[in-house]
């Protein structure tokens, strides 16, 4: 049993060393998919998969730090997920809240919550805001946790914020229509001031975005991994980075 483990370790190290440092994405988005199916494969309740998936997050952040990624966005709870059965949803929100609080307690990463927290129970929303506040002065890896998040919802929020801003300025609708451009929308997204994700990873074999970072991912590269999120390994992450580095990024040109 030791020889395969040793060979696996050598392969992983070779992968890491072979990555060109000038091709490391600054921002990586991750759709953490497959927790429920992972649990079902072992005959376990969904909560077991959600907890195992939550445990994987800190590992992923460490791997990202090691290669020089600056921003990670984790989609932890979508607006569609809010329609799940009440008992499962309550447990999932509790697990997510605990996981984010634990990330903040390390003092290692800056946590930013993105999404509509008004869609969550008040106690959970307050705990998430508190976690964000505790890390506001932390320097290092910036971790966006997308909770109660949907791409269309984010764009609608950006428009609302933009319109309110111009109402306060006294801008007429005609003047706004004349000056309106895409940069104004970008300045009101949840990720304002951050680089757009160059790489988006989705686990569990599903090959769709499902509404994740719709605006920001216009020029992203996508990597779909067969592993369920709880089984996602460092070698899977390195393979995603290798695939990213091998692609010719034309950015629409």
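-> sequence recovered:
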């Amino acid at each position: 049993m030791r020889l395969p483990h040793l060979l696996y370790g050598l392969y992983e190290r070779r992968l890491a060393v072979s990555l060109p440092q000038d091709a490391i994405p600054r921002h990586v988005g991750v759709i953490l998919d497959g927790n429920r199916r992972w649990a079902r494969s072992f005959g376990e309740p969904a909560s077991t998969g959600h907890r195992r998936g939550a445990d994987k997050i800190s590992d992923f952040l460490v791997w990202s730090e090691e290669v020089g990624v600056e921003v990670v966005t984790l989609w932890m709870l979508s607006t569609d997920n809010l329609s799940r059965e009440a008992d499962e949803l309550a447990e999932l929100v509790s697990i997510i809240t605990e996981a984010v609080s634990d990330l903040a307690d390390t003092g290692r990463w800056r946590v930013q919550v993105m999404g509509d927290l008004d869609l969550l129970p008040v106690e959970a929303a307050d705990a998430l805001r508190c976690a964000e506040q505790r890390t506001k002065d932390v320097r290092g890896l910036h971790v966006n946790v997308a909770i109660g998040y949907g791409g269309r919802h984010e764009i609608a929020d950006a428009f609302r914020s933009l319109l309110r801003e111009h109402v306060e300025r006294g801008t007429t609708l005609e003047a706004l229509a004349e000056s309106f451009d895409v940069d104004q929308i970008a300045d009101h997204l949840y990720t304002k001031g951050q680089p757009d994700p160059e790489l988006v990873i989705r686990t569990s074999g599903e090959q769709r975005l499902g509404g994740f970072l719709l605006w920001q991912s216009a020029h992203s590269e996508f990597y779909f991994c067969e592993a369920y999120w709880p089984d996602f390994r460092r070698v899977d992450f390195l393979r995603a980075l290798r695939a990213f580095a091998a692609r010719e990024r034309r950015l629409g040109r």
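The longest strand covers residues 71-78.
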